[in-house]
Fold this protein.
Amino acid sequence: MKKKKYNEKHSKKIRKLAAFCCLIAIFLSVSTYAWFIGMKRVEVSEFDINIATTEGLFLSMDGIDWKYNLDVNTATQYENNTNKIDDVELIPLSSVGDMDSTTSRMKLFEKSSLTAVPGGYRLLSAQVNNYTEQEPNTQAYIEGDGYVAFDLFIKNLSGEEYYVTNDPENEEAIYLNTDSSVTVATDGGVENTGIENSIRVAFTQLGRVKADTTDQDTITGMTCADDEDGAAQVTGICRSAQIWEPNDTDHVQNAINWYDKSCLARTAADVDSDASYTDGDTTTCNTISNGTSYPTYAISRRIDVADEVNVYDGTAFNKYTANSIESSKYPTYSAADSDGKAAYKLVSFPYFTDTMKNIAGADRPQFMTLAPNSITKLRVYIYLEGQDIDNYDFAQLGAKVSVNFGFTKERYTEGDIDYDGPSTDITPSEDEEIQP
């Protein structure tokens, strides 16, 4: 009886929420050069992740212990996991969010060589090795170096129907919280370097099972593949990552100056030739300015010498189009190994940006979807995007940034509807936790 009254009281309190917020605070201590020239490492000395949800949505790091509030640093993680959270060194990488369905890992690319050329830098890249070595006694592939990665399990108790088919139209819309931000940390950060403007956060959904599944091995062992022989029906997902780009319109003057000094308009294939960087009577690249969002031509595959790629290639920058393609014309992830997709090197990637996050009212775009009555296994990646125009050599002097983001099921904020009522800033405390 006491538990019933508590649950009723707890449910009544939670229903007052207009939105739920998953807050993740990450402090990245930066002590290196960025994508260009130096390519040293970014050390992570502090890493605080706290997540909170509302009624009907629970979080876990081990697939067994479910909470409204979750501290990733202290939460119990399942045995033989391949999370990379502590003592991580970040290096600038690049990705279009493609998934390797065999390994259930996101494809990332790192610089293998960078040489100054008349109009910028010749770029060579190799895929980060997260596809060869497996954790002992599991089928989980060990992630490579240079980024943060961890598994997060979300139990969604909305509805009673479980949809076995992998179809986003059967799922609920999830929105990025308007308070989500990436800023220079107040403790130890140095402003006006722009390092915070090249952070990316990627969310990959690997698979899901019905919400009443209790077998830990089934939950934690989910991959991109369907599985009908296990303890429960596993629906493989393996969608291309939804990647958030914060501060898409912010560009510090030093980054702009670096671009203006380095970039020249390109007209020919020989990336090393002076003659390749002329455009009639002008050799200037397109102008960039603070307050405007520009595309990131992210790396989609290994780039070799014969590819003749300059880091500034693309319509928005040096005007050279042979090595890049707009995202709308880029083949879907299901054709990841096709000849058509392999032909492209750089993709103007459609990030979910802060500009999109801040759209109000009925036009607010969804961030991702989650199936009702399910447990979904996500893998979260946090990295520096080397192809971001803000990722210049001196950005490392920023020293430390703070990353905060959250989710909500509500499309509207209080301001959208001129809300005038009880506070909606209510989240269950740790003492109020109950198991679903």
In short: Confidence is low (pLDDT under 50) at residues 2-25, 29-34, 36-53, 333-337. Residues 2-432 form one domain. The CA atoms of residues 103 and 380 lie 15 Å apart.
